């Protein structure tokens, strides 16, 4: 398992870089903003509400009120960032909300029919990340030299296992699948954008009841612990398509070090081609485009 350390000097290259952070006003997002500013980065923080803690007025920070479920808000976010700084080097697609849906509900509407479950979590945690990433790629591949940049997505330990917060778990599996699907496309099309994801364990974000967790003997990690992982994925240009598990200061890359090898070796077995390789060859044979029957 590829466990690694994050040293302060590993993050030094972020000085002067332009970073967009969504969900920037609290929790992991706010801790990451504060870390980036301490490193000398230029940060545009996006959230529905301003930061929960005051930001040093001398720091290179701009708050942009943004609802990540609204496309026009995200368009404005990127436009504002380009107007202020001329480019976007890194995006931390971090905005997310806690579980909301009850899929065992018996609540009926005025007609006596079962009410549709809420999709707020999926809209925020999945659609918001997908749209943020889409805009990031568009701007990064069309900006002045040097082209490119990086996108870091906040998934969760809920995205790699069974986890009974159903809509939250579905959203975190979804964004991890989005990263996994997008990585080979970016490489094949030679788009100079790296994409990585985080899978934090229990974190002190205000969502988890700290008193109860303490009674249960569960130690919560600090948001800054996760923020350092986000910054490391931005700074290290060798990291691409990685999934970093974060648990109380221990950082482990688990996508290429654990999950992919397990699939190749223990499920597919020797001599069997990866399905993605087959899909690539099929698309090339079809002229590189999806057909109606695919």
TrEMBL record:
One annotated GO molecular function: oxidoreductase activity
Source organism, top-level taxon: Eukaryota
Alphabetically ordered keywords of this record: NADP, Oxidoreductase
Keyword Oxidoreductase: yes
Family to which this protein belongs: Belongs to the short-chain dehydrogenases/reductases (SDR) family.
PANTHER family cross-referenced by the UniProt entry: 3-OXOACYL-(ACYL-CARRIER-PROTEIN) REDUCTASE (AFU_ORTHOLOGUE AFUA_6G11210), NAD(P)-BINDING PROTEIN
Protein name from the UniProt record: Putative oxidoreductase-like protein
Organism for this UniProt entry: Hapsidospora chrysogenum (strain ATCC 11550 / CBS 779.69 / DSM 880 / IAM 14645 / JCM 23072 / IMI 49137)
Phylogenetic placement of the source organism: Eukaryota, Fungi, Dikarya, Ascomycota, Pezizomycotina
């Amino acid at each position: 398992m590829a466990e690694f350390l994050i040293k302060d000097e590993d993050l030094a290259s972020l000085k002067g870089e332009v970073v967009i952070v969504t969900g920037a006003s609290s929790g992991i997002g706010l801790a990451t903003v504060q870390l980036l500013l301490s490193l000398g980065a230029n940060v545009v923080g996006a959230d529905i509400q301003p930061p929960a803690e005051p930001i040093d007025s001398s720091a290179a920070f701009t708050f942009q009120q943004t609802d990540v479920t609204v496309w026009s808000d995200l368009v404005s976010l990127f436009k504002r960032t380009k107007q202020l700084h001329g480019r976007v080097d890194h995006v931390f697609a971090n905005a997310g909300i806690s579980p909301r849906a009850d899929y065992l509900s018996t609540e009926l509407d005025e007609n006596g029919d079962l009410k549709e479950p809420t999709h707020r979590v999926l809209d925020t945690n999945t659609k918001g990340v997908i749209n943020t990433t889409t805009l990031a790629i568009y701007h990064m591949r069309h900006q002045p030299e040097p082209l490119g940049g990086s996108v870091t997505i906040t998934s969760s330990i809920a995205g790699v296992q069974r986890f009974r917060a159903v809509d939250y778990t579905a959203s975190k599996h979804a964004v991890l699948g989005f990263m996994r699907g997008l990585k080979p496309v970016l490489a094949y099309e030679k788009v100079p954008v790296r994409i990585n994801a985080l899978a934090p364990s229990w974190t002190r974000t205000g969502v988890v009841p700290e008193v109860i967790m303490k009674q249960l003997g569960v130690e919560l990690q600090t948001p800054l612990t996760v923020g350092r992982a986000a910054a490391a994925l931005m700074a290290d240009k060798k990291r691409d398509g990685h999934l970093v598990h974060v648990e109380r200061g221990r950082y482990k890359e688990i996508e290429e070090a654990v999950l992919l090898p397990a699939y190749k070796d223990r499920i597919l077995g020797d001599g069997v081609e990866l399905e993605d390789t087959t899909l690539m060859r099929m698309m090339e044979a079809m002229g590189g485009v999806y057909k109606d029957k695919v």
